[in-house]
Amino acid sequence: MIEKNYSNSFSAYTHENGGRVALLFLLFLVAIYQLINSGFNAFAIVCMLPVAALALIIAFKHKMFTFWTLFVVNYSVMFLSRYEMMPVPTSVPTEMMEVLLLAIAIIDMKMLHFERIANVMFLSLIVWCLYCTLEVLNNTCGLGIDPGAWFMGARLMAFQLMYAFLICSIYIHDSKRIHQFFIAWAALSLFAAFWAWKQKNIGFTDMENKWLVVAGRTHFVNGIIRYFSVFSDAANFGCHMAAAAVAFYIIAITTKIRRHRIFFLISGILSMWAMFSSGTRTALFCFILGGCAYIVLSKSFKIAIPVTIAGALFVCFLAFTTIGNGNNMIRRMRSGFNKNDASASTRDVNKASIRKYIQDAPWGIGIGNGYDKVPANNKYRKLSTIPPDSEYVFIWVHTGIIGLVVFLITTMAMWLGACCIVFFRLKNRSLQGMGAALCCSFIAIQLGGYGNQILMQFPNVLIFYGGLSLVYIMPHIEAEYNIYEAKLIAEQEERKRIKLEKKRAARV
Hints:
Strand order of the largest sheet: 1-2
Structural class: mainly alpha
Number of strands: 2
Distance between the termini: 80 Å
Order of helices and strands: HHHHHHHHHHEEHHHHHHHHHH
Number of helices: 20
Shape: globular
Radius of gyration: 26 Å
Largest sheet: 2 strands, antiparallel
Mean pLDDT: 82
């Protein structure tokens, strides 16, 4: 009798859920087939398909959770890769999540605010992406057209910039979320600073020591250790933290909310410490350039004068004194003002060699043509082997002088367009501060890209290109931001009033 009930229950279940049962049974058979014929990896992939389907359902139901997950994953992929926790290339998880978020936005058409997307930055990125798309036809090296190699390179050189712009423009569309963007960035930067402190005071992990021996030998310079935290290398870490420090200091100066001022001031100080711990001299100039840009964008003598004085004293301290030379980090940064530095001379020699070879390749050697693609007897083999030491030089080599000019023009167009919005269109001082923070950090990381090959590295594209896209949204939400800020100020005043009343009551 009991068996009959069980049988009836199973029959009823299969009758009501026949499609699901059949699908799961088919999936099970496919998994077993893959295990027998292709091994455990294929078996594991098939078994993960239900998990992937569940993740898709969650992503559709919780869009912002998916976005913030992307934000965190984008910041941590290099860290996870170093610990061999990434079974796929580092770009795959972020790119898959970006495509998923774009697909969700297209399905849910009400999320697309076309008036906010159609702007100077969007047009500039279209021009750059179109140029990089035309590069698929580049056969300068005489190796034929390889769409696969081209696509691998174009994804990282161009398409990820468009992804970052679209994702942030669509999903960060109100005052609260813009604040959350900065808070999330600051929180992740604080973790990066903590991890650098941990490396400095507690030591490297076994995996970090292994990486230093294999790929990170340049992180020991004249007895100075260059710390890299959770980033790909010290140069990327230093330039990113310099640009982040600029942004956090600007927000701390301009915000009217006391707790935000304290939080971003602490974030700026610790990010600046992290910048010094990286031992990356270019990072120092990133910080200085970001500060100079803010002097112009502040439109206030009360801000411009003290910032200028502080900046001048900071430069004089490093360039014209020997104070603090006992500190390795200060001594390393001070060497950036040495015109006879051996590292800078080597880069100049490399650029001279590239200039000689690139004259016959105005379109570059092609996107995707690297060291392993160009044969030894090829005329352009030398170009593929010279270390570019700079993102701009890398673009110059692979897309030619024409591509470099296109990149420079489009980059300056999107940056100047954002600066004009901050300077002329925004009226709210706090919103101006956030816009200026994004503009100044963007130009700071561009200088980092000129000095080192870090501009397209994780996590820079989503934060700096995605961040710049938020400036173009700000005029559309300024009225809403005024209400949002007034509410925060009212809450702040209410807390102060309650605290004052408690003090008075305690005295009595």
